[in-house]
Amino acid sequence: MKSKLSIKNVWKSYGSVMALKETSLEVPEGEFLTLLGPSGSGKTTLLMTLAGLVLPDGGEIRIDGVLSTFAPSHQRDIGMVFQNYALFPHLTIYENIAFPLRMRRMPAAEIDRKVKRILEIVRLPHVAERFPSELSGGQQQRIALARCTVYQPSIVLMDEPLGALDKKLRDQMQIEIKMLHEELKTTILYVTHDQEEAMSMSDRICLMNDGQIEQIGTPNDLYFEPKSIFTALFLGGANMFPVRIKDQDTDFDTYEGPGGGMIRAPRTNDPRRSGTDELSIMVRPEHITLLRSDEHAENAAEVRVRNSVMVGPVTKYFGELADGTDVTFTQLTTAPTRSAISGDTIRIGWPAARTVVLPGRSVGHE
To answer: Once rounded to an integer, what is the mean pLDDT over residues 87-115?
Structure first.
C-alpha cells in the first residue's frame, strides 16, 4: 500500500523538556490513524510538527514522498480540525465552506458543486444560509469537518475535535467522522486521550507515552495483545498479577502467581519476558467467569467478593485473592448467570489462551 506520510526520527524539545523523543511512523494512504495517549505523551506535539505549526529539532517528514520537514503549512496540502471549530462567525455556512475553495481560485460553478456535495455528505444541506451562531455544537463541528475536507486535502489532522461535546453528541459525531472517512477515503490522523473513541474509530492506534510510541497496531492488537503494562492498563480494564516462571513447555508456560497459585499462559519467545522475575500476567475482566463447584478451567482461583455494580448490560464484580491481590471481572446482566454478593467466596476461571505475559510489574507490585 502506498505510503502517504513518512516520519523518520522526528524529535522536539523545549529547553530541557523532551516533548517528543525520536519517533518514526509510516501512514498508508487512506488510513484512519489515531494518536492516543495521556496529557504530555507527545501526541499533540507530533501532530503540530506534521501540520507545520511546530518545527522539529531533528528528523524528516515526507508527504507523498516529498520532503516536507520545514515546508510552511500552506504548502503541505493538509487540513486541520480543532476542538473550537474555528468557523468565521460573520460568514454564512455556505461561505465558511467555500472559503478554502475561493482561496484556491476555483471557478464559481465548481465551488457551488463542491459545497453542496459536502453539505449533503454531512447531512446539513438545509443550513447553508445560516450563520455559525445559529447552529448547535454538533452541527458546527460537522461544518468544521466539511470545510476542512471540501478541498480534498492530502491529509486531515484532527486535534481532539470532539472534546467540547457531551457524551451522546460525541458518540454521534464519531459515527459521522467514520462515515465521512469512508466516503472520501481521506488519510486522517486523529488525536485523542479517550480510549473508547480511539478503539471505535481507528484503523490503527498509535499509543504514545512519555514522548514516544509505546505500541502501534489495530485496536484488537492493542487490546488483546498489549506489549507492555502501560498499554494493557491504558486500554480497558485489566487484572494484573505478579508472577514467576515455573515451567516451560512447547505451547504453554506455567507461572507461579499470587498466593502460590499456578497460571498457564501461551508460550512466548519475547526476550523481555524470559530469564527475569519481573513479570506480570494480564487477564481482561470479561474473560473471567464464575465457576460451579464441580466446574474446571485452565486457570482458576478463589476470590472473596467485596462489591458488585450493575452497569446496564454487564455486572462488574470487585474482589480479592487470598493474599489481597485485587481482581475485577464482569458477567452479562441479561444472561442467566450465577451471581455473587458481597462477602461470598467464589471460584473464578479463565482460558490459558486469554492470559497475556508482560515484562515488569505494575504499580503496587513493585
So the answer is: 94
Q: What is the pLDDT of residue 2?
A: 84
Task: List the domain range (segments joined by +) for residue 169.
Answer: 3-229
Kindly tell me the burial class for residue 1, based on how many C-beta atoms sit within 10 Å of its own C-beta (0-12, 13-18, 19 or more): exposed
> pLDDT-derived band of residue 366, with 50, 70 and 90 as boundaries?
very low
Measured N-to-C along each axis, helices 167-184 and 137-149 cross at an angle, to the nearest 10 degrees, of: 20
Q: Are strands 356-359 and 345-350 parallel, antiparallel or unpaired?
A: unpaired
Q: Are residues 302 and 216 in the same domain?
A: no
Instruction: Give the model confidence (pLDDT) of 214-273 as tens digits.
Output: 999 999 999 999 999 999 999 988 999 999 988 888 788 999 988 788 999 998 766 555
Helical segments of 67-159, H only: 93-103, 108-121, 137-149
Q: Specify whether the backbone of 97 is left (phi greater than 0), alpha (psi in -120 to 50) or beta.
A: alpha
Bridge partners, 34 (sequence order): 190, 205
Q: How many Å apart are CA 356 and CA 366, to the nearest integer? A: 19
User: Domain boundary residue among 202, 229, 256?
Assistant: 229
Does residue 100 lie within any of the structural domains? yes
Set of cell numbers at residue 365: 507490585
H/E run at residue 197: helix 195-201
CA 267 and chain centroid, separation = 27
Domain count, the chain: 2
- Closest to 144 measured CA to CA, from 124, 166, 171: 124
Identify whether the C-beta of residue 141 lies closer than 8 Å to the C-beta of residue 85: yes
Domain end call among 197, 229, 261: 229
Q: Do both 133 and 63 map to the same domain?
A: yes
Distances (CA, A) of 288 to 66, 191, 301, 351, 363: 50, 32, 10, 8, 22
What is the amino acid identity at position 363? V
pTM to 2 decimal places: 0.88
Cα-flanking dihedrals φ and ψ of residue 111, to 5°?
A: -60, -45
Q: How far apart, in whole angstroms, are the C-alpha atoms of residue 53 and residue 50?
A: 8
C-alpha count within 13 angstroms, C-beta hemisphere, residue 144: 27
Calculate Rg over the CA atoms of the chain.
Answer: 25
Estimate to the nearest angstrom the gap between the alpha carbon of 312 and the chain centroid: 24
Q: How many residues does the chain have?
A: 366
